[in-house]
Specification:
The protein has two domains: 51 residues, no CATH class; 91 residues, OB fold (Dihydrolipoamide Acetyltransferase, E2P), CATH 2.40.50. The chain is an alpha+beta fold and 176 residues long. Strands 1, 2, 3, 4, 5, 6 and 7 form a seven-stranded antiparallel sheet that branches. The chain is built from four helices and seven strands. The chain is elongated. A hairpin with a 4-residue loop joins β2 and β3.
Length: 176
């Protein structure tokens, strides 16, 4: 009886090992695996990345996620979106021609530039003979709290493609 249990356990281990050892080609088919490998090679910082259809799809997708995280705002559209962050700091700059943006110096000393897209109100004044709008000088240095998200452009900013990613102000308020 003990030997039968041992053989059954061994058989289950062999089957589980086989499932884990399946290549991405076997899991998804050659065409889909090739697309996944292409995405992996596009974002992987490794000199010998695990971006090979002979590896498991899980290994390849883990490398894609890692590469996307490292690339941050420069990540391609197929990367998962970066989480929204709450930034506390001071307004240090802002403006634009068609699309207004603000620059916040965070409490940690990092400058963060994000497009307003209707979130910043009438904070800008004409500059350079009306060709440009700049942040109202009265607002420079004011403390703010902003929610910033890195998202696809999706037609919000004139010029760049829809799939390019930028930081956008989701909400912003002055701190008293």
């Amino acid at each position: 009886m003990q030997i039968n249990k041992f053989i059954i356990s061994l058989a289950f281990l062999a089957l589980a090992g086989n499932a884990a050892a399946m290549s991405c080609d076997q899991q998804l088919g050659k065409a889909k695996a090739a697309e996944l490998v292409k995405q992996c090679k596009n974002v992987s910082p490794a000199t010998r990345p695990p971006c090979n259809a002979a590896n498991s799809c899980e290994l390849i997708t883990d490398e894609i996620k890692r590469g996307c995280k490292i690339l941050g705002d420069d990540a391609p559209a197929y990367c998962p979106p970066a989480p929204t962050v709450l930034v506390k700091g001071k307004l240090v700059d802002g403006g634009g021609n068609d699309d207004m943006s603000v620059t916040i110096l965070s409490e940690q000393g990092k400058k963060i530039r994000a497009y307003c897209v209707g979130q910043c109100g009438d904070w800008f004044v004409e500059a350079a003979g009306g060709e440009y709008q700049a942040l109202n000088p009265k607002l420079k240095g004011k403390p703010v709290t902003a929610t910033i998200a890195t998202e696809r452009n999706a037609g919000r900013i004139a010029g760049p493609g829809d799939d390019e990613r930028f930081k956008f102000v989701k909400s912003i308020a002055f701190i008293k």
